[in-house]
Design a protein that fits this description.
- The chain has nine helices and nine strands.
- By secondary structure, the chain is α/β, with parallel strands linked by helices.
- The protein has two domains: 175 residues, HUPs (Rossmann fold), CATH 3.40.50; 106 residues, GMP Synthetase, Chain A, domain 3 (2-Layer Sandwich), CATH 3.30.300.
- The strands form two sheets. Strands 3-2-1-4-5 form a five-stranded parallel sheet, sandwiched between helices. Strands 6, 7, 8 and 9 form a four-stranded mixed sheet that branches.
- The two termini are 34 Å apart.
Amino acid sequence: MFSPEGFVEESIAALRNEVDDIAVIACSGGVDSTVAAVIANIAVGQLLHCVYVDTGFMRKNETEEIQEMLARLGLNLTVVYAEDRYFAALEGVVEPEHKRKVIGELFIRIFEEEKEKVGAKYLIQGTIAPDWIESGGGARDTIKSHHNVGGLPDDMTLIVVEPLRDLYKDEVREVGQFLKIESSQRQPFPGPGLAVRCLGDLTLERVEVTREACAIVEEEFEAAAQRGEMELPWQYFAALLPVKSVGVHGDVRAYGETVVVRAVASLDGMSARYSPIPHPVLTKISTRITNAVKGSVNRIVYDITNKPPGTIEWE
């Protein structure tokens, strides 16, 4: 049986043996990177520098919330605002694998810059088993390249350390609860952020629509769960599709894009089934999204695909 306490003890010992110089860690605020950061902080203390990169693809108010949470955990945090760099690098990039590789390479370049500032030798990451399994390699097919695995450039200079590499999401959550990390039950959020929930061109306007739609889905699902109307799914979000259709706003013709709402039940993210959501909740979400982004979106659909054959995220 998996022991969170035993894993933490072993990981601290391994990190103390492996990391003999300054290390930076990619800390997104999600459960994986936060658990890795807390363990690394216990293990190497002042040698650790946590870096949070605001790519411009974060959820609504996420950067501020993460800064506050990581400060409460006593982590030494640097915030890098890189929205302009990411949008410039991804201009015209729409193919999902290409998108992930561009995001992954820029991610590493930013960390190499931070490495130079603090003189770091190591890059600690919150990579977990599904990340490298889905990224392919050897006899495994590439389902999708996770930016922290398949998106890493060949010429990177940092030594990568991955203390959670053999854990699955449910085990990471157990470790997070053992360490009393408040984000241990936070729903998964992809490393590339809204960049893989905004299908097609990554413009500021389209990403902002995606951000607003995701916020509405989260707010309505969480409120409905608190009222006892439904169980809160394992993961839930909205994605913007580059699919236009004719609609009507008031008495005016509208030609807008489509938002898909996605919610699934899962244990470790390797497989999932879609969550049945009460129709009144979906109706409220549809009304709120179309009113919030009038003109740009005029159709809301709900995804009833399991994994497999689909993946949880659309890209």
